Amino acid sequence: MADAPRQPGHLWLEGKTVVQLRADQPRPTHMPRGPAKRTGPGFLNPAMAPARTRSVLLLADALEHHWLVKDGHDLRALDALCATGVRVRRWRNEIPNQVQQRLRITANDLDDFALDWLKTSHTLFPPVIAVGHALEDDRYERPPQGVMENGIFIMKNDARIALMEAAYQWIDLDPFGSPVNFLDAAIQGLSRIGFLEVTATDTAALTGSSASSQRRRYGAKGIVDTYAHDDAVRVLLGLVATTAARHDRVVEPVLALFDGHHVRVSVKIRRSKESASEVLDWMGWRIRERSGAYRFVQHPTPEEVERGSGPMWIGPLWDRDIAGRLTEERALELCSPSTEGIQQATSSGLEWSEGDQEYAQRELRRSVRFIAEAADLMSRDHLLLHIDDLPNMAGVPHAPKMEVLFTALRGLGACAARLPDIDPFFVTDATLPTVLDCLRSLVTDS
Predict the structure, then answer these.
(1) In a designed cystine with 162, which of 8, 157, 179, 264 is the match (CB 3.0 to 4.6 A)?
(2) Cis peptide before 41 (omega within 30 of 0)
(3) Looking at residues 56-74, what average pLDDT do you find?
(4) 65: phi then psi, degrees, rounded to nearest 5
């Protein structure tokens, strides 16, 4: 493999894990909200840090609450396109010690430089707890080519081959661009009950900004408006669900988000021919009404197609219990570095100030902000609204603060919660007329 530097250009701390940055990559000073320019092998995209943090929390939750494997059984996890391995290193370093021995991690990539960077980083900055797993040769059709480094099996392979060679309970699929070419292999590579996390950065295609790419890759039609981000999530989730159905599997959404410059969906997948046959019951179109509202339909008329987007997943997007445990306190508990950990890292060359620590904790909180509060609504039928759209819909000059509106809706017996999006979206189980009447009353009385 190509030589990776034995000493980093400079160091960064993501979660509790020391990350080597190339000398020509600027030290992150704030969390980017959009795509970062890739500058070659060894590049760390700091904009993906929140997704990696949520991955740590979800994997820890699966191990502690036994919703993938029984208590005492091992959980096999694969990062099929691991690049420099920041995600797998965070899995090994930040998931609670009491369940680490049950976690078997495989990291795969085709890039020699990236894999050597992973090995070097993981050797220079090993995990807090030593995990002495031996390679499970009997699980592979042919002896895998790779090495075991501090509890992570690192191999070089085409991702589609790596996905198919052994059964995993957990697969992370994070390509550059669209995941379409890897989905079949990823779903086939899962155990009878498994978990799949899929990232897509081709948001122009998913939102409909690039109509030809959306038709070609996702077989969908989009409308670029207020609901484009939610459409993107549902289009990707619909593709995952229908792909799984072709392999006699059914998906159960756990967490699906539009995060800055990418879409990330996390689903439980289990074998069930009967349930997989019902996948089309969850597929449909979002139809825009002239009032500014929307509704979901399964079979749109030609006239509705003109003002609709789809086909897409029209069912729930989250799991109430699992997403409800993704709290800010939990993120800090698992991923915030201790004073001792910071001291050890600074003795190895990390430059880390009190301001850096304050910033890091703020970004950990932001990674999961609003998720627990919205978990119940996002797990069932809900109405999605943008606060800035409401004044025009209600015929009033301005909107109140979100929390004021939420308090008023709760006083009427409805639920409401903000969504984790850059834009001010919220969800509620109130009807649109109820929301608009409530808004008018608040603005009139103010």
Answers:
(1) 157
(2) no
(3) 96
(4) -110, 0
